[in-house]
Specification:
The protein has eight helices and three strands, in the order H-H-H-H-H-E-E-E-H-H-H. By secondary structure, the chain is mainly alpha-helical.
């Protein structure tokens, strides 16, 4: 009997990167994300299987990805919040939100390279705290996804609005 394939958290990050660079070689995709080219390739195959990429290409199926991010990502990959830590701001604490959302406490990906103290959140993939330096545009997109995963209705709505605008620009 064949094993049921399913998406992994890093696949969301790969899909977000492919929005901007669908034709990038796997080596470049891996460099941007801090993963191996073979791991990037496996993610692309899972994304294709899930219908989040257009058939026979690495172009994102924008409508399907937005639907998944808006309605499924917080259930498939629920946010895990933990004790306060120093780290890199994410979700509605990230710079992409500016001063649009004021929260009592920041949300951060724990990191020795971070400078913000807040409630820690386990990132979708381990190299996420490196994204502000490695790939700033991807950092913005992933923090919007985190706002959907952890936010209340208002934060989720603002994140969805911003994601839709970015996905429409990538189309």
């Amino acid at each position: 009997m064949a094993k049921q394939e399913s998406l992994k958290p890093q696949d969301v990050v790969v899909a977000l990167r492919l929005l901007e660079t669908p034709e990038a070689p796997y080596a470049n995709l891996g460099d941007d994300l801090g993963i191996s080219p073979s791991t990037a390739h496996q993610s692309v195959e899972r994304l294709r299987m899930a219908g989040l990429l257009r058939p026979e290409s690495r172009h994102v199926n924008n409508r399907a990805l937005m639907e998944f991010l808006e309605h499924g990502v917080r259930y498939m990959f629920p946010a895990k919040l933990d004790a306060p830590a120093t780290g890199v701001p994410t979700a509605y604490s990230a710079p992409v939100f500016g001063s649009e959302i004021i929260a009592d406490e920041a949300i951060v990906w724990p990191s020795i390279n971070g400078s913000v103290v807040g409630q820690s959140m386990t990132p979708l993939y381990e190299n996420a705290p490196q994204l502000p330096q490695r790939c700033p545009s991807l950092y913005d997109l992933l923090t919007l996804v985190d706002a959907i995963r952890v936010g209340r209705v208002r934060e989720r709505a603002k994140a969805i609005e911003k994601l839709k605008a970015r996905i429409d620009r990538a189309a």
